[in-house]
Amino acid sequence: MRRDLARQFLYDMLLARRFELRAAEEYAQGNIAGFLHLYPGEEAVAVGSLRAADPGDYVVSTYREHVHALVRGTPLGSVMAELFGRTGGCSGGYGGSMHLFDVERRFLGGYAIVGETFPVAAGVGYWLAMNGEPDVVLCYFGDGAVNQGTFHETLNMVALWDLPVVFLCENNHYQIGTEVHRHSAVSHVHRRTGGYGIEAHWVDGMDVRAVHEATRDALRHVREGNGPVLLECETYRYRGHSMADPAAYRSALEVNELRARDPLLTFREWAEGEGWVSATESAELDQAAERAVEEAVAFAAESPPPRDLHAGVHVRPLDLYGGRP
Amino acid sequence: MSQWKKGNDQAGLLAPARPAERLQVWEALNIAHDRVLAEDDAVFVMGEDVGLFGGSYRVTQGLYAKYGAWRVRDTPISENSFTGLGVGAALVGGRPVIELMTVNFALLAMDAIINMAAKMRYMSGGALRVPLVVRTPGGVARQLAAQHSQRLEHLFMNVPGLRVATPATPQDAYWQLRQAVRDDDPILLLEHELLYFREGAFDPEAEAPPMHAARVRREGGHFTLIAYSRMVEVALEAAEELAAEGIEAEVIDLRSLRPIDLVTLQDSVTKTHRALVVEEDCRFGGAGAEIAAALNERSFFELEAPVARVAGADVPTPYNGALEAASIPRPGDVAEAVREWMVG
Ligand SMILES: Cc1ncc(C[n+]2csc(CCOP(=O)(O)OP(=O)(O)O)c2C)c(N)n1
After folding, report:
1. What is the DSSP letter of A189?
2. What is the SS3 string spanning B182-193?
3. CB-CB neighbors (< 8 A) of A59 in chain B
4. Per UniProt, which keywords does this protein have (chain B) (predicted)?
């Protein structure tokens, strides 16, 4: 492992953790509203996989996507401003937490209907394949999403037409409050692609290095024209499904057990042990992350709210009666 | 005021034809597809049996051989996902034309159409555009029974972010498909299964009116009949029946249900003072309700009577042929409704 990559992993995860915890605080203060789905515990998946992707690759994500956007490079301030519903947000304040988009970084969402990410990823992949482009689509989804028809419909199409898609399942064990063995006849998601002839692997989603390696291999596999790949990254979310969920359906014991394998702490320990970063450097990175989040909040708070209901982005709403207001 | 509000209708369905080629609706759509595929590499066509087979209504016939599998793609029976695939491709530069075999199956693609295609531009703050065209046959055809005989335009009319066009003539089908492909926003073309093999004048070089502009198919000073899709035929037949009795009905083909060309409707009502909407869809909560309400609101002082409606019966379409015919407006129903109002 290279030293700069180790530092990058560490910084990304520290930033992600701080960003999400701060978002929870801002929510409690009333600066963020609506549904807010946070990512603590799952950082290794976004960081490990996205750091393996090229800038040309596309990313399609769900409503739990803040960290995907951050790691992809969307400015922190514009993500926070979107959570605040302000014009400085990456969707101008019109999308909110569940609908982040960043065209420049090929970050395409942001979908709040479980299962929508699959066809969108297939569509981007179709376009890439049709035009012989070298890029790949990274498609994120939870364990709960694999029981949607779109999962199976899409796997069939991407396999049939050999579309360049890497599917990244963030198996955090829960579909809101329903544990994976209660919602899926076969709870090992990677075993559910067999019927479509898609290569699939289980990955330790608490280990950023493992996710990184697996994604790198998967991307290479796809770029070499061997067809789509699915990676099941087994991970865990520490918090409830959203701010509205106190997560009473699971024991403190379970949470603490998983917390002991915290992706951030285990990686820091490892990186310090290997001599890739010193304890002082770790602390510095953490402080830098804290400052960055502080600045993001300040930016969001100062950003004006959008005023135009129609914003010129709607499909001619005022012309609904043939141009008569 | 729109130059398209009346007349200028040589290319219309039942209007006197200018010396131009005559074609059937499916042929006009076929030519439109051919042109858009030839003009722009970003266009691709996708749907069940649109490729090798050539489309259930022959609309995509010959295109697969000409453009190959990537541009004219046969899909599995996965309506929601291949429509969603169209959304994804549209987001990154593609201009997909998705054919949903019938509007009944479009229900399975409602997530892709309503939750995705229609919302992406707005909820991305304008950063994303979705130049997606969804074409789908629908309406009551011949004894296909309840699951295959629906008119669902009211479902799509209520969706901000979508446009809904309803071509009734070969010329309009050609124009509106080409306009839809050029547009950067999602557009639904609701075609009628009984119209595909209707013939009409066709001039591929004629200049197109705006996609949403209504057209006056028949002029008349006594009554305004407002129709769209196949009901334009029914309204025109009713108008002939009424003309024999000295009642001159003006027949307007709306062509678009979202937006609605209210300008043309108001102009007509200003002349006739009475209007009736003819729709194949069920009356309750349908397109006619919107049209009538908008016209009542805006032309109240021009109207001698509230805007009336003749619509399909509020029942699932029956299989039995006689019952089926009774479930949708017939020319006689329309004429009778007009007579009632003319007496008043
Ligand atoms: C089609 C649909 N059904 C239900 C919901 C409500 N819902 C939102 S998130 C969620 C659970 C999804 O779980 P999973 O896919 O495992 O993702 P995670 O939240 O664990 O990241 C549900 C049921 C939804 N948004 N969309």
Report:
1. G
2. HCCCCEEEEEEC
3. none
4. Oxidoreductase, Pyruvate, Thiamine pyrophosphate
- For residue B59, what are the contacts with CB-CB under 8 A and spacing of at least 6? B26, B29, B30, B33, B50, B99, B135, B196
Domain B215-343 - what CATH class? alpha beta
CA distance A292 to chain B (A): 24
Architecture of domain B3-201: 3-Layer(aba) Sandwich (3.40)
- Chain A residues in contact with B115 by the CB 8 A cut-off are 113, 116
- Chain A interface includes B76 (CB < 8 A): yes
Burial B73-96, CB ≥16 within 10 A → b, else e: bebeebbbbbbbbbbbbbbbebbb
Ligand 1 atom at minimum distance from B111 CA: 1
For ligand 1, whether the C-beta of A46 sits within 6 Å is no
Q: What's this model's pTM, rounded to 2 decimal places? A: 0.93
Tell me what ipTM this predicted complex has. Answer: 0.93
Q: In what order do the strands lie in the sheet with A199-204?
A: A107-110, A58-61, A137-142, A165-171, A229-234, A199-204
User: Average pLDDT per run of 10 along chain A, which is 325 residues long?
Assistant: 92 98 98 97 98 98 98 98 98 97 97 97 98 98 98 98 98 96 95 94 98 98 96 97 94 93 97 95 98 98 94 69 68
